């Protein structure tokens, strides 16, 4: 339930390359937006940059609160950012620091959690109480909304859906993850490159083999654009990724019994070429009763999901 008595709030979506902020109405409508390149040189400089961006996007509006979506693992009991991906925030009492800087109510959550919250409130999961969201990009982010509320686990570190192992002998995962064969390593940008290299090795005279020979690596955008143009090698590479994604989705359906699974992120530019395969693979693997009740759909809010979900934290 959103608190419409608050008045406008600010939602902030922090990424490794840019910080986006938006002034948002109690009805989750965008009123103004701004952004800046992320200053990753130093923790204090980053916090200063975020503060200035919030003040700039708020302007003269009497802002009631600020919500943040961070690429981080967050101890929800204490408002502490325990660890982060691509930004200099580790063991930081983030809620306290930003409350002191802004003199406003502050809430914080993982960026994939807030994107899921936005899709559940006003996007592809609107009207559904139980929503799973996956964001496919450099990594695989995940968010879980159960009974209308974000699920955090015991301390706030839950919802790392990208780190489900789907192939115990698969490639090493990224970042600080010690595993092999995580969904993150097989359905992310890295997974697209691996699939392209597999197809290139199998078809040395094909388009992907030629692209790799020229550039040394398969660019994700080249694979997606090629697939959208009908190139068979690119379509087949995305089918490998789609099957991996489908395995993950089947597991989430079996575990959580959601109303809807929403899939977003940059790799979803491939659309049904990717998602159609994933849906078919999940349908072969999921248990029948929960599969009959679930939809698997593309996200609707695009790049606005982060700031809208961050705003929804405080509404």
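Sequence proposed for the structure above (315 residues):
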């Amino acid at each position: 339930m959103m608190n419409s008595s608050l008045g406008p709030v600010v939602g902030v979506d922090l990424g490794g390359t840019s910080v986006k902020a938006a002034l948002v109405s109690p009805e989750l409508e965008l009123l103004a937006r701004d952004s800046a390149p992320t200053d990753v040189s130093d923790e204090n400089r980053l916090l200063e940059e975020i503060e200035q961006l919030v003040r700039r996007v708020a302007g003269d509006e009497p802002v009631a609160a600020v919500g943040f979506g961070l690429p981080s693992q967050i101890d929800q009991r204490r408002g502490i950012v325990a660890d982060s991906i691509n930004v200099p925030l580790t063991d930081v009492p983030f809620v306290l620091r930003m409350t002191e800087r802004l003199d406003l109510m502050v809430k914080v959550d993982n960026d994939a959690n807030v994107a899921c919250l936005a899709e559940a409130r006003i996007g592809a999961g609107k009207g559904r109480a139980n929503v799973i969201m996956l964001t496919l990009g450099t990594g695989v982010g995940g968010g879980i909304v159960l009974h209308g509320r974000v699920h955090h686990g015991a301390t706030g570190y839950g919802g790392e859906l990208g780190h489900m192992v789907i192939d115990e002998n698969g490639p090493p995962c990224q970042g600080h993850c010690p595993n092999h064969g995580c969904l993150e390593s097989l359905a992310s940008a890295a997974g697209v490159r691996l699939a392209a290299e597999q197809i290139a090795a199998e078809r040395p005279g094909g388009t992907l083999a030629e692209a790799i020979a020229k550039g040394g690596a398969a660019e994700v955008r080249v694979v997606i654009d090629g697939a959208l143009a009908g190139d068979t090698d690119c379509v087949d590479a995305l089918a490998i990724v789609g099957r991996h994604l489908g395995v993950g989705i089947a597991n989430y359906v079996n575990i959580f019994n959601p109303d809807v699974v929403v899939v977003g992120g940059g790799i979803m530019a491939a659309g049904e070429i990717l998602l159609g395969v994933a849906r078919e693979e999940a349908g072969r693997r999921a248990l029948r009763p929960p599969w009959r009740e679930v939809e698997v759909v593309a996200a609707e809010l695009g790049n606005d999901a982060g700031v809208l979900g961050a705003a929804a934290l405080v509404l």
